[in-house]
Structures are given as C-alpha cells and as structure tokens.
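sry for the spam today, last one i promise. struct tokens for design, 276 residues
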C-alpha cells in the first residue's frame, strides 16, 4: 500500500512537471484526479494479480496484501470520491479524454484479451508490460493537463508538448524496467513474459543504462529552457547512479527499487528548483 501511495504522489509530481515545463498555470483538479485515479488503478491491478489463495504464496508481499485487503478497499473508495469531486470541475473534452485513458488503463489489469482460450490482461502479453505502463503514464501526466488547457483556450506550444510526451515515455521506461528485473523470479513463477525474462537479466540491465544515456542526450537537444534541461539531465544522472551503486548491485534489497518511484518526484523538484 505504501508503494501505491508513493506511485500516486509520483503521478501528481509528473503532472505538475508538465505545467512547469510548458510554463502554464497549474489546474489543481487535474492533480487531484491524477493522484486519485493512479492510486485506484494500481490498487485494482494489485487486487486482480492476487492468486486465489494469497496465503499460500511464497512471497511475503502477496501474503501481506491478502491479509489486509480492507485497507486496499478503503483507500480505493476514497480515491473514487475524490475523483468524482474533481470531475465536476473539468471540461467535457477532458472527460472524454479521461474516458479513453481509463479504458486503456483498465485493459492493463482487466482480463479482456483471449490467448490460447484464456482471457488475460495486457500486462500478461509477452514484453508489453513496461511499454504499456509508460504510455499510460505519458497520456495521463502530459496528455491530460494539455487537453484541459486546450479546452480552456490556453496557448500551447505543441512541439514542446509532443516532445515532452515522447521523452516522458523513455524516462518512465527507465524507471519501470528495474522493477521487472527485481521481480524476475516472481514473474517467472506466475509465468509473466517480461522484458528481463525475454532478454535475460544482464541484457535488461544494459538496456536500462542505454535508455538513461539516450534520455540525457534527448534532453540536451530538447526545446526547453536551460533550467528544465539541467533539472531533467541531473535526474537522469541520479537514476544512473542509483543503478550503479544501489539497484544493480550484489547487495539487493526488495525496497531499493522504490527509489525509482521517488526519482519521478525528484525530477519535478529538480526542475522546480532550477526554475527558481
């Protein structure tokens, strides 16, 4: 549950970052929806991924969730109420876009695709998981604020907005792939074909470093102000240092990888500080 709250805070930070980069006023109702719906969807994904008997799972995290489902449902209900309140303050065009993003998000967790006679969620499609998560996050943290701004006749630099949506996908891939590397054994146990399982751990680690360096390059040639560029670049350097000295080391700890969720908040903070 704590990890889901951290992810919700990271979603709010990434949404706020879009307003800073595009130099446009923040809409607080968009931030509320971003945080509440992220918490709700991650809670739903967590619930749907539970085995029939969580207490028989060899993983402590799964057993704990099975014992404490009441907390999951309580915070999910709160998230629904906050979302309903914030929706009352948004443009109809934004509501339609939210409906689209919501359908895409639910397809990740809800079993709607049939393969070999068995219905599965898109998270179980071989190799798709991290790309799907990155796309949904980009749509919600960049697309959602931009659509609401457009609906209210704000002047938007579309090149900057589209560039941000693309580099956001890359940064989110950078921050999510290590989770799959960490969960290699667990995903193998549940027969999920993730990128590390398809490529192997070592190649997946090299891919992580490569994406980090490519993100730095894209930010250096981006159309943004020097403050935004250096805030984003320093965050990517921070992530690469985490890879080297914390995440991809022999001394592994299950919770170390959650520092990458924190990096999504650090990125917003770094840009905010550099903007002055």
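last one done:
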């Amino acid at each position: 549950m704590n990890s889901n709250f951290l992810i919700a805070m990271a979603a709010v930070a990434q949404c706020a970052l879009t307003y800073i980069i595009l130099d446009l006023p923040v809409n607080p109702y968009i931030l509320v929806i971003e945080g509440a719906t992220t918490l709700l969807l991650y809670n739903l994904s967590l619930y749907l991924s539970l085995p029939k008997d969580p207490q028989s799972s060899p993983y402590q995290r799964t057993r704990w969730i099975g014992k404490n489902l009441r907390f999951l449902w309580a915070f999910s209900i709160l998230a629904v109420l906050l979302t309903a309140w914030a929706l009352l303050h948004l443009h109809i065009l934004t509501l339609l876009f939210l409906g689209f993003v919501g359908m895409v998000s639910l397809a990740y967790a809800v079993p709607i695709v049939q393969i070999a006679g068995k219905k599965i969620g898109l998270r179980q499609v071989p190799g798709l998981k991290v790309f799907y998560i990155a796309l949904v996050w980009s749509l919600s943290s960049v697309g959602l604020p931009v659509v609401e701004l457009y609906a209210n006749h704000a002047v938007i630099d579309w090149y900057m907005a589209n560039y941000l949506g693309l580099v956001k996908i890359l940064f989110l891939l950078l921050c999510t792939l290590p989770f799959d590397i960490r969960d290699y054994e667990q995903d193998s146990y549940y027969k999920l074909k993730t990128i590390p399982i398809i490529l192997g751990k070592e190649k997946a680690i090299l891919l992580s470093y490569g994406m980090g360096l490519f993100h730095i390059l894209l930010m250096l040639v981006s159309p943004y102000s020097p403050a935004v560029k250096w805030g984003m670049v320093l965050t990517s350097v921070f992530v690469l240092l985490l890879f080297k000295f914390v995440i991809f080391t022999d001394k592994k700890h299950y919770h170390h990888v959650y520092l990458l969720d924190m990096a999504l908040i650090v990125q917003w903070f770094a840009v905010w500080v550099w903007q002055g």
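The chain has a mean pLDDT of 85. ok im logging off now
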